[in-house]
Amino acid sequence: MASNLHDLPDSPCIGVCSTLFDDICKGCGRTAFEVSNWVFLSDDEKRAIWERINREGSAMRFTRDKA
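Request: output the structure for the sequence above.
Response:
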């Protein structure tokens, strides 16, 4: 993962949302709180979330291209 937040997409969202039914979105790997507050989070908070979802690697954003 790039160390500079500005090298990443604006958000982890891939348009496959499940936060109404799941604690963690199956599409992007963020919590409902993280999704709904993304625009208000600091760069450090966003970077920490990116690091966590990359480390976990279980969201569709990471698994959809794998066969």
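The mean pLDDT is 87.
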